[in-house]
Amino acid sequence: QVQLVESGGGLVQAGGSLRLSCAASGRTFSSYAMGWFRQAQGKEREFVAAISGSSRSIFYTFYTNSVKGRFTISRDNAKNTVYLQMNSLKPEDTAVYFCATSQRSSGTSSAQEYDYWGQGTQVTVSS
User: Fold this and answer.
1) Which of 1, 5, 50 shows the shortest CA–CA distance to 23?
2) What is the pLDDT of residue 118?
């Protein structure tokens, strides 16, 4: 049984930082891409960032345009954990953030390519 558990959300002022964590179990973690998505109230879930899987510690990352230069996705395969470092947060970053694991090693922005999801963690950025 694959499980993903997010943590690290909270309330922060605009310009501040948060680091989200997602602990995975039940799958050979290193082989599969991981992604972060978010869903603001009244809006559809959207892609935030993804990181490829790899057995050689060489990872590829990509981001949605609105977070480039502010957010960084990373993974620690020894801890079966993926992170999302969020800096220079803006009120429009307010959302529930979800991590997900893909069926493939290559990262993708398509939610349909991810087969397991965490329960989400709330991030609220005040102005």
Assistant:
1) 5
2) 97
